[in-house]
Amino acid sequence: MPLLIKNGQIVTPSETYVADIYCEDQTISAIGKNLSATAPNTTTIDASGKYVFPGFIDPHVHIYLPFMGTYSKDTYDTASKACLVGGTTTLIEMICPPKSDEPLAAFELWKGKAEGKSACDFTFHMGVTRMDALAESQLKEIVRAGVASFKIFLAYKGAFAVDDSELYHTLRLAKSLGVITTAHCENAELVAELQKQLLAEGKTGPEWHEPSRPESVEAEGVHHLMTFAKMHDAHTYIVHTSCEPAVRAALEAKARGVKVWIETLIQYLLVDKTHAEQKNFEGAKFVMSPPLRDKRNQPFLWDGLASGAISTLATDHAPFDFKGQKEMGRNDFTKIPNGIPSLEDRVNLFFTHGVKTGRIDLHRFVDAVSTQAAKLFGLFPRKGTIQLGADADLVVYDPNFKGTISAKTHLMNIDYNAFEGMKIEGRPHVVTVRGQVAAKDGKFVGDTKRGQFLKREPTHF
Ligand code: URP
Ligand code: ZN
Ligand code: ZN
């Protein structure tokens, strides 16, 4: 069914103007003034007084995640509905296989969890948790199948972490295939030693999670990755950068010619380590890695986003219930499943605290939550912009909406919300996936099986 969006203020990283958008066959077919519907069954949306943004892209999510002795709570059914009401129309999920699993089997497993079950489009970063001859040949096959990015962990000793030899060979392979490597940067050995020491001192509560992985340990991880990336001239993307020293380590490497881009998360901008220090184990809700940091880092991260030094704002959505899951670590903080879900609220919170306060201009806003991810991960210009021929993934955004975040009303399949009680100013009025309305005023109204796997070509040679 054709779609006509009338009189919205269209915003991309480079332009803003008022116009109509006409969409047919899932893509944008006309942009201009005074467009009228040519087909009788056209859906018409009045966007006067509202922004029209390209559908938001979350470049770092976990929907299916076997981790720390349990499984993340969302499915593609619940996660895609939740992200769509928040305006996110494309998810890039991390495939995180245990070291014992073969990459191809993992790729098929993760794809099977999404195909035919997602309301939004999706693709993956292929986690490289082992690197041997078999893995190498299967990774090449996965890239040919349309996955143009890898994910490696320097953290999580004994689980996902790669050693230096695996790191070296992964980056070499990535360079030869033209794929970008996304990386979780924390020194796994230092974390393991600090955890042991803290537990031996009887420090078992969630407030000790941050001291077990201090800022210097994250910065060392970044520096380590940068040294290896430089050897191969490999393209790298540092996920969930939480603090000034880690960002500075990446920027210093960039100045030395390392090809690196930086991601931060909405959590690091709005909640801090004091949240993980709350009494009665409440702090467990705020345990993730890298940890929430001292508040002094927040202005630095906001400035980095405003200037573009930090390219993207993601969620690292990793949903574990408080009851029964976070509680696994009641007597030992190292057993609290890591993750703070935020898929649904990322953009509304960023708009409220970034755009509405004047910290982030509208162009950088769109760039950070949509366009940069599309460009870095081989989705542009199909996704991440509003132009002729692009997928009609559009967000008609009401900047005057006022609301309050709560687990009572969210769609994520999780029993708490880390932003509980926070006010938002701004929310998607209408969200479309390839020309079909999927969400309206906080409600999912779409087709639960409409999402497609997005094949991507390598671009980072
Ligand atoms: O705490 C986190 N970030 N959990 C998800 C796994 C990861 O490290 O991305
Ligand atoms: Zn991570
Ligand atoms: Zn993650």
Structure description:
- It contains 13 helices and 19 strands.
- Strand 10 (121-127), helix 3 and strand 11 (149-153) form a beta-alpha-beta unit.
- Helix 4 (164-177) crosses helix 7 and helix 7 packs parallel to helix 8 (244-255).
- With 461 residues, it is α/β, with parallel strands linked by helices.
- The strands form 3 sheets. Strands 1, 2, 3, 4, 5, 16, 17, 18 and 19 form a 9-stranded mixed sheet that branches. Strands 6-9-10-11-12-13-14-15 form an 8-stranded parallel sheet. Strands 7-8 form a two-stranded antiparallel sheet.
- The mean pLDDT is 98.
- The structure holds N-(aminocarbonyl)-beta-alanine (URP) and zinc ion (2 copies).
- One zinc ion binds next to loops.
Looking at the structure, what is the overall shape? globular
Structural class: alpha/beta
Secondary structure: helix percent: 25-40%
Beta-strand percentage range: 15-25%
Q: Which molecules are bound besides the chains? A: N-(aminocarbonyl)-beta-alanine, zinc ion
How big is the Rg? 21 Å
Unreliable spans: none
Q: If you average the pLDDT, what whole number results?
A: 98
Please report the total strand number as a whole number.
19
State the end-to-end CA separation.
40 Å
Query: Helical region count?
Result: 13
Largest sheet: 9 strands, mixed
Topology record:
Elements: E1 3-11, E2 16-24, E3 27-32, E4 43-46, E5 51-54, E6 56-61, E7 66-67, E8 70-71, H1 76-85, E9 88-95, H2 103-114, E10 121-127, H3 133-144, E11 149-153, H4 164-177, E12 180-184, H5 188-200, H6 209-212, H7 215-232, E13 235-238, H8 244-255, E14 259-265, H9 266-270, H10 273-276, H11 297-307, E15 312-314, H12 346-355, H13 362-376, E16 394-404, E17 423-433, E18 436-440, E19 443-444
Parallel strand pairs: 1-4, 1-5, 6-9, 9-10, 10-11, 11-12, 12-13, 13-14, 14-15
Antiparallel strand pairs: 1-2, 2-3, 5-16, 7-8, 16-17, 17-18, 18-19
Helix pairs in contact: 4-7, 7-8
N-(aminocarbonyl)-beta-alanine binds near residues 184, 289, 338 and 339.
